[in-house]
Write a structure and sequence with these properties.
By secondary structure, the protein is an alpha+beta fold. Helix content is 56%, strand content 19%. It is elongated and about 110 Å long.
């Protein structure tokens, strides 16, 4: 198929210009512009993919430990009839399982080492239907959590911090105290460490204690479970389902879904993602507008060619189209190269980053700071397509002014000194 002559000449100008000092310099500037666009697009794709992967990894590990929805008594005490509450919640089409629990804060220690922790009293059989972690531990460690046995399960990091091993005695200090004639005496109880778990989420591995719900109720002196945990068919429908459950169960209970439990963290990630996208888009914009200087020098260098084309009958619109094609071609090449490079790195981050860490002898993601210890990545079409479109649009806009200047060249004036 015969292409319009504007396309042919514009493509020829894109490929030409490597001979001679002046033309070689123009080609160098053009190459730098294309490289800048490619690197900017690739950086944007890689960063957003890593942030998506980071958010998904932490969310999945978080949801392996906590339930999708939790129901509490609105007054802050134990649920008067948790079975009736669980049965009422189970009527919702999204709810697939329910389990009671007791939640409280306490100090956990062995010897002189004491650490603050969240204590969760669970029913091992019911808990396995609600959380993935309990399902993985069912039949093993959790089977040792029997009422009255005073056993507990610690996060692996928490057990390491207090120096406890399986079979050791671990002291749990409950908040408040016991009033005696000698004053207020801390309420504490010795448990046997029945096992440990590792969820892959540092906050839970270093700060969560599991024990039987009856033992927790006796330790914290509550008459029964303080809440009910729910598992939903669709984790992403948790906020809507929680609102519907709150309306159905009435004001006597407080319904909270996982998005609100960790709202500050997820909101912070979204804000960081938007800001990073804006910053890196500005980098792409700077690279795209380098095309302006390239095209301005090209127009100056091709004034004689423009004049000859005008005398042969080319219209100003055709002259403008030639340089738009030249600039847009550079933008397309840079964008496609950037998308290819970005996807190549994004899909192989789990290989590239460990290799760099071994080479430099450093750890980019200490688990105690970033919650996870490996670099995740999840490229999404919803990010990649807008990035490519914005890059192409910026490159096209950058060509308009130099192309318009080329169309305004006077043939007689351009040929006067030729």
């Amino acid at each position: 198929m015969q292409l319009p002559f504007e396309w042919q000449i514009g493509w020829r100008y894109t490929r030409a210009g490597r001979s001679g000092r002046r033309n070689g310099f123009i080609s160098f500037i053009s190459g730098v512009s294309v490289l800048g666009i490619a690197l900017g697009v690739a950086a944007l794709i890689i960063v957003l993919s890593v942030m998506n992967g980071f958010q998904k990894e932490v969310r999945d590990r978080m949801l392996s430990v906590i339930s999708h929805v939790e129901i509490f008594d609105a007054r802050g005490g134990p649920l008067t009839d948790w079975r009736a509450t669980a049965a009422a919640a189970a009527r919702h089409p999204q709810v697939v399982a329910a389990a009671p629990f007791v939640a409280a804060q306490a100090l956990v220690g062995r010897g002189d080492e004491l650490r603050g922790a969240i204590v969760r009293g669970i029913d091992p059989d019911a808990e396995a239907r609600v959380t993935d972690l309990a399902r993985q531990l069912q039949g093993g460690v959790l089977s040792r959590l029997e009422p009255g046995a005073w056993n507990l399960v610690l996060g692996a990091e928490l057990a390491r911090l207090i120096g406890a091993r399986v079979g050791d005695k671990v002291t749990v200090v409950a908040p408040g105290g016991q009033v005696t004639p000698a004053g207020v005496v801390p309420r504490l109880k010795q448990f046997t460490l029945a096992g440990t778990f590792e969820a892959g989420h540092y906050d839970y591995d270093s700060g969560l204690v599991l024990m039987h719900v009856d033992d927790a109720a006796r330790l914290f002196r509550v008459e029964g479970p303080t809440g009910v945990q729910l598992r939903l068919a669709d984790v992403h429908a948790a906020r809507v389902a929680a609102g519907e459950l709150a309306a159905a169960l009435g004001p006597e209970v407080l319904v909270r879904d996982w998005t609100r439990t960790n709202r500050n963290w997820f909101d912070a990630v979204q804000v960081e993602k938007r800001l990073m996208a804006i910053i890196l888009t500005l980098i792409v914009a700077v690279a795209a507008f380098n095309l302006v200087s390239t095209l301005v020098m090209t127009v100056t260098d091709k004034r004689a060619d423009i004049a000859i084309l005008r005398t042969l009958g080319a219209s100003p619109r055709s002259i403008m189209a030639i340089f738009v094609v030249q600039g847009a071609t550079a933008g397309v090449i840079g964008t496609l190269a950037g998308v290819g490079l970005g996807l190549l790195v994004a899909f192989n981050v789990d290989v590239i980053v460990p290799a760099i860490e071994r080479l430099l002898g450093v750890a980019f993601l200490p688990g105690s700071i970033y919650l996870i210890s490996r670099m995740p990545s999840e490229p999404l079409a919803s990010d990649i397509v807008p990035i490519a479109v914005v890059s192409l649009l910026l490159a096209f806009v950058a060509t308009l002014y130099p192309s318009w200047r080329a169309s305004r060249v006077d043939p007689a004036e351009a040929l006067r000194h030729e």
